[in-house]
Amino acid sequence: MPHRRSADEVHYLERHETAANAVGGRTLRDLGDCLFLYTEDEREPFGNRVGALRWPSAPAAFDARLAEILALFAVHERRPHVWTAPDHREPSDVEARLAANGFTARTGAYVMVADREPPAAVPGPEVTVERWGGGPEAPLPATLLREVAALKRRSFDGHPAGIEELAARTA
Fold it and tell me: Around Cβ 147, how many Cβ atoms within 10 Å?
């Protein structure tokens, strides 16, 4: 009988595999309930994906989290790509839920890609979109960082972090 790995072992292996691919310009972000791998100059799904899923099982909460992840891919102009684990994934029926939302399995089991490119985000006339560079050479103004932090806090129902902490993370 094959050895069954514990949930902690599987999560460790998922994290290790994703971190091992966070090289050559790829960025790994831990989103708390999944890992996001992003490649700035590459649109191919392998380098732009979420994995190590620990998403909520309740249908409404799952749908809300999936909407947030789809928005994250849209912001980065990438096709949504999800890696799931054969065991200890949350929720356990994540592949069926993703399929119901337009994903199909690719390259065998446990890899799902959205069937279509995400629609372009088109803001209404009341929205102004500005791209800010920031970085060590051109730090963003503190007042702007606090405004962005306040918006994040309102958008995520009173994020537990304070405005100053969110502003520091945004910088």
Answer: 14
